[in-house]
User: Fold this.
Amino acid sequence: MAQRVQSVQEFLQDSFYPLVAALCSEEAERIARKNNLGFCELVKPFCRLTSEVHMRDPNNQLHIIKNLKIAVNNIITQPPQPGAIRKLLNDVVTISQPAEGLVANVITAGDYDLNISDRSVKASVPWYSSWKDTLMGLNTSTFYSATTPWFEAYRESFLQSMPASDHEFINHYVACMLVVSSSEPDPVEQFLKLSQEQHRIQHSNEYSYPKWFIPNTLKYYVLLHDVSAGEEQRADSIYEEMKQRYGTQGCYLLKINSRGSNRGADEQIPDPWSQYLQKSSIQVQESCEDGLHTVISNKNTDHFIPLDGLGNDSKDGLSNNFKTHPLQLDHTSDSGCFDGTDYLKSNASLHESKKTNTGTPHGMCLTLTDHDRIRQFIQEFTFRGLLPHIEKTIRQLNDQLISRKGLSRSLFSATKKWFSGSKVPEKSINELKSTSGLLYPPEAPELQIRKMADLCFLVQHYELAYSCYHTAKKDFLNDQAMLYAAGALEMAAVSAFLQPGAPRPYPAHYMDTAIQTYRDICKNMMLAERCVLLSAEILKSQSKYSEAAALLIRLTTEQSAWMGMDSDLRSALLLEQAAYCFINMKSPMVRKFAFHMILAGHRYSKAGQKKHALRCYCQAMQVYKGKGWSLAEDHINFTIGRQSFTLRQLENAVSAFRHILINDSKQTAAQQGAFLREYLYVYKNVSQLSPDGPLPQLPLPCINSSATRVFFGHDRRPAEGEKQAATHISLDQEYDSEFSQQWKDLEEQVVAASNKSAVSNFQPTQYCLNRYSDNSRFPLGVVEEPITVEVAFRNPLKVPLLLTDLSLLWKFKPKDFSSNNNGESKELMTCGKDMIGAEVISEFLINSEETKMARLKLFPHQTGELHILGVVYNLGTIQGTTVLDGIDSSVGFQTGKYIPNGTSVRGRQDLEIQGPRLNNTKEEKTSTKYGPDRRLDPIIAEEMPLLEVFFINFPTGLLCGEIRKTYVEFMNVSKCPLTGLKVASKRPECFTFGGSSTILTPLSPSTSEHSSAYKTVLKHSTSVCSLMSSASSVDFGAGTGSETEVIDVPLPDSVLLPGASVQLPMWIRGPDEEGVHEIHFLFYYESIKKHSKMSHRVLRHTAVICTSRSLTVRATAYRSNALEDEKGEGDNMLVFVDVENINTSEAGVKEFHIVQVSSNSKNWKLQESINLSEDKDIKLANREKGKLCLKSVRCKHLLDDYTFADIIFGNEQIISSTSPCADFFFRSLPSEFRRTQTQQSMNTSQGTVKQSLDNAVRLIQKCSEVDLNIIVLWKAYVIEDNKQLILEGQHHVVLHTVGKEAFSSAQKQESPEMVLFNFFRPESTSVPARPSPDHLSSLIKTSLHYPETFNHSFHQKSLCVVPVTLLLSNCSQADVDVIIDLRHKTTSPEMLEIHGSFTWLGQTQYKVQLKSMEVSRLQLKACFVHTGVYNLGTPRVFAKLSDQVTLFETSQQNSMPALIIINSI
Assistant:
């Protein structure tokens, strides 16, 4: 690669040079190929003239041309494709790298010390050179090159690969060489064919490429003679003939190959071709392999195809390889982009091919004399052929322009001046029309001016060129031909700069206008880039670094592709040059330099230039390091690490990646994803250096050890149809301290009931351990039952993490806990898998910033002590986690198989859980001490039975009070039999397994699907009298000596064998309160064989039932006025039952039927229904209310058993004394009993002095109490899915007090009104307990017996005496003294007017003592003096207990007046 320090003028001159086409015959090309060179490549090193050249301008002034360079190229008939140009430019930048091991120099700029190699930055201004010389030791010089080698190579290749266009002629062919070998049979005929071929190419419409400068192209005839093989005399004779035919100025005899190919290679002949062919070898080699062009080489040769050389295949003896350009892509590619798979070849094969091509010798048949001959040939061609032709063409164009413009332009200008004034205001670029598509005809004067300007520029006549460009610019702007105008502006600016003596300043605004026009109007980024490259060099040479940097950055802002090419490589190079501009300023802008180096490095990386990217980032890191800019430093470190690793600089990569994973990273998701992926990849490669070492600790993901949960047991089975497994405990349930305490209380209660006594040191069974549980004890696991450890992983990054092959790390110590060995250790010759089986999670994805739980299982196969140490896994990521255009493509990775990116590392993390802080003793309070947390250290105990419970057809929605029959299946899934099955619940009133007399039929749920939940019999009589039965509360688990919350499950033989299952019926009753109810079932069971570590096991189930309103029942008991019934069978009461349908229409209930009312009591029973009109069901529609009046009598004998009396309103009798009716009744009693007992205990005073007083109060209160329970049984008709369903249910009403209304459900208490708060403590005065007036009035029951109407003749006898019997009934269980006072007179005037006055005859006061429950009769006489209606209820009755004082004496008032009618006869 040519790396010369050039001045800006030399660079600009070398950027534009005359182009000469070459058309060679096949034989001539073969002769050149003996040197592994094509003809054009053969002459390329000699195309620069070493001597001055003279020519005359149109004014006949002598013009000197210095250091002229021409280019000889093969004819290519297709323009290069953008994809191939992109590949060429990428390759030339890749192979041009700074020398390795180059000693860096320190530049001190402000507070920064920058290490920059000598060849990275070179000052280009005088003031900077002296400053830099003192620091870098550079030789003083006037100017320095401001470019870098890779940028020079890119710029040179870019300018050479630009396709020719119609708006300019500077890269059109000026002449054409026709090359024929002297060994051909008829060389003159071959010249004729080549000439015709060139004429066809230029003038026929078949070819639009290449472009030719003028129609009459110079044809130069070259006879190529092979000295080693040809006859020199024949060559001379042919040359003489050529001179006669073409003239001495138009032909040449070139003799080469003076050295035969068979001679040794001992002679050291210089190879001037290598530096020119290096830049094209990669491109040509890739083109040949990938099919990037259609230049065909000779199959017998193994050399590479030249960049612009011709092949050896010919048609009709001529080379026709001008059909396509060597940079032409395959015709099947329409997008202009090559296949990425071919482009991304392995570095090894590419390097090998490069080495092979660059090592090929050139010019093996040439001697130094041949070199001089070729050089002389180029000079002769230039002196005698090319330059005279150009000089002649310039004169012709000048004459044509003078003759043509003189008439047309003068007339046009005069007209324009006449009508619009002499001066035309210039328009801005934004105001001009987009007329870039305007095409001039070839003979247009404007194009002739441009041709003349380009020819003058090529021969270094810059003053005349500027004048022509300036004139053409005005004409193009007037015509608004913007593409032509921009080209003229561009070349006018360069011409102005290159004029010797600098008569005018550099018109930078010309270049700015041209760049803007190319970019914005013409949309031609390639031409805009050429302007930028030229103008930036000119500005830098004038020390205008700020303007040059702005110009370079201006073009990098374009994100769109140009000519189908990505802008990454272009932007990287321009940004890097802009950065060097900032550092070369008089006051170096270091931070701007670093920032733009970062941008350049980023674009280098995108373009695939890894070494250049690493170099840019390393230079920028010197500025950002240690300045507190964490985001920038992270980005630079990451990129340096990535590029270093790509270049196999592992130590540098590891050093750069040490800060890329920080928990509180401020990076974006895309950046963090890049950090993580690169870290994993580098870490994996570094870890492979020591593969046998211990597993390293991985920093990701974060583990919250305190949130680790451990679960002992199998996972809950999912529901199968109507079969639902018990909920038990699972890791899916959130911890609830209140529920946890409830389960603990239930277990303690059932353990106490099983052991017949309370357990002193009770420890609840722990199935799930977490941060809230008591972890001070070693938890217990069971052999062959899994242990699930839930580990809380937190991903602090914004990109997902993929853990693969995730499992637990553990340590196990076998021990035998049987009674014989007492937990001694035993040596076992088994491997780890035989003792503990570990589950492996193949893939575990943690999304960005997500906390996710991983559940890992261990399967213990032996007893012993297990210690869970941590987790082991492969850390990796998934594909597609980068962010493109702000869209995170990892959002879609939620479920299913994840696609890893192929990079993962194996490592571990330990689970270290800190126990609770101790705060009991003084020492613990004053210091920081933590207790043990043993949740990860379970003890594996012996085998235990394992129960599974399934609920079949368990309802989720019920009406309040509804009874539903379901089945429960108990299954022993272990290898040990279980016994002692019990169930405990805080809601025993909601379910029952039936009493001891329950018939366990039907055996399966399907056979009882449509049957009633009750035991029923057909009604035999049509009366509504009650049918009686009796039952003991002990049969239903409601005895006074047992806890009702603990219920024995009636297993057959009380044992469930291994693998056996049994289905038992269970009735469910909807709670009386509307809403959602949770019913907790705790199943308790034991093993037949006693174990030292585990005595029992429990199984939890929580059932959720939603109840909706159905009926509300109110009942009130009143004493009958009659002291005896019709049969004289003792006391009786009237019971009024109000039933209201409060169901809402949403439940779908059509109506309720009251089918039966039953009573339950030890003392009372329902006898009959009063005033029932018809013998049928009582129907209650929505919001209807029904009222029943029932008669109740005392039972004859007081028994311990409860008496059930059923009053039937339907066709079937529900036997209320059997399951489930009696069950739910007895289950509903305990809470009422406890409430009553609590009230009694509260009312009981302390001390022995008041014992008798309390007994008296209790006896008086008991008089008004009634132990009568009402059971209302109903059916509901529901319409569901166009089917009518019949639901059954029952409501209970407990009557305690006569005259007091009782309800089936608790009534809502209205919130009390706001009252003032008292801030004093009330005095605790001891008030003697007194019975209420209601209780006292119920002590004695009175009744008057008399005739309702009495006829008397007052004319015969003025006094009317009527006999009246007063019945007194003692309602208490003690002796009562009764005083009857007849002296009471009614004093109310109203009463006198209505009832009149009468007199009792005889004794006015009676004293009677009544025994317990005794009835006494007292005969009285009432005297009346005239007719009327009288109230006989005037006697006052006083009662007191016989052994008490008169403290409780009170009047017993009749409940209703006793009216008598006295008639006169």
In short: DSSP finds 32 helices and 61 strands in the chain.
